[in-house]
Design goal:
Elements (H helix, E strand, L loop, with lengths): L2 E3 L9 H5 L10 E3 L7 H7 L4 H10 L7 H11 L20 E5 L2 E5 L9 H19 L3 E6 L3 H10 L5 E8 L5 H8 L6 E6 L3 H13 L1 H6 L2 E2 L6 H18 L7 E6 L4 H11 L4 E8 L4 H8 L1 E2 L23 H8 L4 H12 L4 E2 L4 H5 L5 E5 L2 H15 L5 H16 L6 E5 L7 H8 L20 E3 L3 H9 L3
Parallel strand pairs: 4-14, 5-6, 5-8, 6-7, 7-15, 9-10, 9-14, 10-13
Antiparallel strand pairs: 1-2, 3-4, 11-12
Helix pairs in contact: 3-4, 3-10, 4-5, 5-6, 5-10, 8-19, 10-11, 16-17, 16-18
Bound molecules: pyridoxal-5'-phosphate.
Length: 478
């Protein structure tokens, strides 16, 4: 399988070659040259598979440059009941992504039972094993530099901890993450993990990462890499649970389902789009945003108006506080018939800070073929939905999942087909205790094994928002 850039001006590459890099050299994002198709016979056989075997079946279609036996070892090691053990009481951790039925035809797919209690573990854990494998083969090392407002950084650190050839330098805004998130990251004892708390906001952390990465000499000398959400391997790993969720929510492969996806960078729902392109019978992809509703506006109107980062609303579903969805370019590449020249033209505008408008173009007319619908959710909606889930369904959900459920319920009101709706649970409530207290007047439940992590010793370097200082910190440790 070869991968192409959405901007069409970079050479095609194999999976392992794009694994460690970020953007393609022409500024685009990598996608498979064609989406592998899943036959009816394959779907029938896959229906019976446990998660790790399903993951191998799906990923084998995308990863053709790792020997089959090695890939199986890596995938088996990633999707174990031990790693995804933080499931709700009564669920089987061996399911990896258990499905909870809220009411007939309405389900929650639990994707946040991994070490950091957010769905990002589903992909990042695989990335950790793939990185170690490829670096070892090539005799290389990498220093991962990232910025996090909470979920991504912790998922990256737990995926890379103790991995040979990998160090992680993670910037986070000092004092801005929840107490639980800080404890998760800063209590890691591993020598290859470095936490840097910046006395500034998340955007400033991101600016520092950009500044360091734009210094080509420094980047090359210190082998700086990233694990951000444009990484194709992360999208690929996320395709698997759409298949799993489909099989769990249906009895036969003649049925269709809808998925509701709390969205920020468009990574999670992009994987759903790819699953549908492969032939999974998905009737609707229901995209949910919070107050940062740029994507909702696009799917309603055909106008994409990304905002400057500084205009991002700070909300109570912070992992969706994104105004420029980095993976969206992948979808638009497919929407415009994979015409890279059109993508270049559209993103010339986006990269200048402008909008684009597809109204009146043939692509806008085609948009409905891609089966997306969208909606938004506000702070008040989030609180009300957390309450509904708790009172009506006896299930505690986190604020991001609440955005997904809110939009899913609104869509169900209008949908005449009545297909099963699967809401993706993207985090556990304990990560966002403040909002749970506000909604329910009680503390969120937390996995027993994580009782008291706030009291563990923490390792974090507090620094000013100064790229030169961050560079010096990295240089002294690599
Ligand atoms: C990252 C994240 C999201 C958004 O996912 P994208 O892939 O960026 O669209 C939603 N909810 C939670 C809890 C997250 O951590």
């Amino acid at each position: 399988m070869q991968y192409l850039s959405t901007r069409g001006q970079a050479p095609a590459r194999e999976f392992c070659d794009i694994l460690l890099g970020g953007l393609a050299p022409d500024g685009g994002l990598y996608l498979p040259e064609a989406y592998p198709q899943v036959s009816r016979a394959e779907l029938d056989a896959w229906r019976e598979l446990p998660y790790h075997a399903l993951a191998l079946a799906v990923l084998s279609k995308f990863i053709t440059d790792i020997p089959a036996g090695d890939l199986k070892t890596l995938v088996d090691r990633t999707y174990t009941a031990q790693t995804y053990r933080y499931c709700r009481p009564g669920r089987d951790a061996a399911d990896i992504t258990p499905l909870t039925t809220l009411e007939p035809g309405l389900h929650l797919l639990e994707l946040s039972n991994g070490p950091t209690l957010a769905f990002k573990d589903m992909a990042m854990q695989l990335l950790g094993n793939l990185f170690e494998y490829v670096l070892e083969k090539r005799g290389e090392t990498i220093n991962i530099l990232g910025a996090t407002s909470g979920d991504t950084g912790s998922a990256a650190e737990y995926a890379m901890r103790g991995k040979h050839g990998v160090r992680v330098f993670m910037l986070s805004p000092h004092g801005k993450m929840s107490e639980f998130q800080r404890a998760q990251m800063y209590s890691l004892p591993d020598a290859n993990i470095f936490n840097i708390a910046i006395r500034a906001m998340f955007d400033d952390c991101q600016d520092i990462v950009k500044a360091v990465s734009n210094d080509a000499a420094f980047k090359a000398k210190h082998r700086i890499g990233a694990v951000n959400s444009i990484n194709w391997a992360r999208v690929a790993a996320q395709i698997v649970y759409y298949f799993k969720g489909y099989f769990e929510a249906t009895r036969s492969n003649d049925e269709e389902v809808a998925f509701a996806v709390p969205s920020g960078n468009f990574g999670n729902i992009c994987a759903g789009h790819v699953a549908r392109m492969m032939g999974l019978p998905i009737r609707r992809l229901v995209l949910a945003t919070n107050e940062n509703d740029v994507l909702d506006e696009f799917f309603r109107s055909g106008v994409y108006r990304p905002r400057a980062t500084r205009e991002t609303h700070v909300t109570s579903s912070p992992s969706m506080d994104i105004s420029r969805a980095s993976n969206f370019e992948r979808f638009v590449f497919d929407l415009v018939g994979r015409d890279a020249a059109v993508v270049r033209e559209l993103w010339a505008k986006v990269d200048r800070g402008d909008s684009f408008d597809l109204r009146g173009t043939p692509w806008h007319a085609r948009l409905s073929e891609f089966r997306f619908v969208s909606g938004t959710s506000s702070h008040a909606d989030r609180l009300a939905t957390i309450r509904t889930a708790w009172e009506k369904y006896g299930t505690m959900i986190d604020p991001h999942t609440a955005d997904g459920l809110k939009v899913a319920l609104a869509y169900r009101e209008l949908d005449e087909a009545g297909v099963p709706m699967v809401v993706l649970e993207t985090a556990q409530p304990v990560k966002f205790a403040e909002t749970i207290r506000e909604a329910l007047g009680r503390e969120p439940t937390r996995p027993e094994a994580l009782e008291g992590i706030e009291a563990l010793p923490q390792r974090v370097e507090v620094m000013d928002a100064d790229a030169a200082a961050v560079k010096a910190f990295i240089a002294a440790r690599t």
